[in-house]
Specification:
alpha/beta; six-stranded mixed beta sheet; three-stranded mixed beta sheet
Length: 363
């Protein structure tokens, strides 16, 4: 399991520049005019994890297989998108297909790069986008409710129950209470694929001088994120573009160090994305391959086994389990066994980040 992040925002905020930098490609056209992106660009990136290389070295693996993240560069939304302005509904449908949303907000002034509203105002920009997403979801809910109202005359209890749930849900979303939902509502949301309930992080695209400490614009966004129990990250799309053009990792690290940055934007985004979606990584490792697998937190080990193959879950017996730190400390499975650190876990065991598994099954 990887995950898919949609990059959204107003036109000319740096979405496509960021996308190209993250995916180290030139798939997205970067242009100083609205709607340079029409069809969404998709780039698949390996999730960086130093543990993979260490495990592969210890296991003498022939192959290393990471997990992946898909970045989707979605065209710039504008005021009125929910009613078809710009390229409106087409863009909104693209956003419905992602797992999480990266909302890029312009936090810099540059007279050479036009702003669609001729005024750099991050909070106003955020509200413009949020309003359009909210209106789009309300429209979806209203259509569904109207359809159920026509059917409720049949007296079907399931229809009546769903109508009640959706009516309550519409009220909550209309009042911006969509973070306080019941499990029954969440199940229906999953079926409707509503946008406003998707996990979202803010990316403040700042000028190069503000990359470390931010600026007045990014501080406004950061405060808003905190008030929403959300997260914001400062990046400079222009710096990331420069980094992506360097030929090797050594040059990239040197460039990052010269800027006093601790890690790349890609690493920071992925860490934030994993936290947003409550994801963790487990591993399988042996002579043939070392591989990373992604599951949600609180996943039972038998379900994690099913990520590899359905037979592993159906015929699950137990999982031989090693903690990453033990695998590293005792130099592999044999050393772990000799140290008495290998555990036999039943199907109710909850997977921990960094667990290394060997699954026993019988089908």
């Amino acid at each position: 399991m990887g995950f898919k992040c949609g990059i959204i925002g107003l036109p000319n905020v740096g979405k496509s520049t960021l996308f190209n930098a993250l995916t180290e490609s030139n798939k997205a056209e970067v242009a100083n005019y609205p709607f340079a992106t029409i069809e969404p660009n998709v780039g698949r990136v390996a999730v960086p994890d130093d543990r993979l290389n260490i495990l592969a070295k210890i296991s003498k693996s022939e192959k290393i297989i990471p997990t992946y993240i898909d970045f989707v560069d979605i065209a710039g939304l504008v005021k009125g998108a929910s009613s078809g302005e710009g390229l409106g509904n087409k863009f909104l449908s693209h956003i419905r297909e992602v797992d999480a949303i990266i909302h890029v907000v312009r936090c810099f002034k540059d007279n050479n790069i036009t702003h669609i509203n001729n005024d750099v105002s991050p909070l106003k920009d955020i509200e413009t986008i949020k309003t359009e997403l909210l209106l789009a979801d309300i429209e979806v809910l209203e259509r569904k409710i109207q359809s159920l109202q026509k059917k409720q005359k049949s007296g079907d209890k399931k229809i009546i129950y769903e109508l009640k749930i959706l009516s309550n849900l519409l009220k909550k979303i209309d009042e911006n209470l969509s973070n306080n939902l019941y499990e029954s509502e969440i199940k229906i949301i999953d079926e409707l694929n509503l946008i406003t309930t998707k996990p979202t992080m803010y990316i403040c695209n700042v000028d190069e001088k503000s990359i470390l400490k931010g600026n007045n614009f990014s501080k406004l966004v950061h405060s808003k994120a905190l008030s929403e129990n959300n997260v914001s990250i400062n990046i400079s799309a222009s710096i990331e573009a420069q980094i992506s053009e360097l030929e090797n990792e050594e040059e990239k690290l040197e460039f990052i160090n010269d800027l006093d940055l601790k890690e790349t934007t890609l690493n920071r985004l992925i860490k934030s994305g994993y936290n947003l979606l409550n994801l963790i990584t487990f591993f399988t490792s042996g002579p043939k391959e070392t591989r990373a697998w992604t599951v949600e937190k609180n996943t039972e080990v038998s379900i994690a086994a099913g990520k590899i193959h359905s037979d592993f879950q159906k015929g699950f017996i137990r999982a031989e389990t090693i903690k990453y730190e033990d695998y590293k400390k005792f130099n592999g499975e044999l050393g772990v066994k000799e140290a008495g650190k290998l555990k036999q876990e039943g199907k109710g065991y909850i997977v921990k980040d960094g667990d290394i598994f060997h699954f026993l099954f019988n089908v």
